[in-house]
Amino acid sequence: MAQFQPALQKVLAHEGGYGNDPNDPGGETYKGIARKMQGNWSGWAQIDQYKKQPGFPTSLEKDTALQSLIAKFYQLNFWNTINADQIVNQAVAESIFDFGVNVGVKKSAMLAQKVVGAAVDGSIGVHSLENLNAFNPDHFLAAFTIEKIAYYIDIIKKKPSSKVYFYGWVCRALEGYQA
Length: 179
Description:
The chain is mostly helical. 60% of the residues lie in helices and 4% in strands.
């Protein structure tokens, strides 16, 4: 069965550290947690305290309690939501998890369900897991990567200003393809 910690490390490598890009719809972010979308996350209070001290944002990395909050956030809100620990193939679980972090759990689940021929409802339950675990992992990763890139293209069609993120999104999608 898939393991959370290796998947988290890959997600965090994509998400980076602290940022406050005015063009990012999430606004201020730390390791992919966007203040505008997850404003109630308890880690924001700690980050706000660090902003008042020298060494910010580098100092955030040394706070083990904050790093633990980040791991719990991703495990509860993304990994557990897609039942990733019940997915047999690590690369498949990591790909669905990573895309869920990037675009939302429901969208990631829906595209995964579409690829494996499960009912597309955005919730990975028993039947979706059966289909995922029975599906050839290499074929899943290839098809899921294509679906992810098609989704990114749709975003740009609807919001052309998002084109600046396209290259990064595609690179991220291709890194999840390990066939």
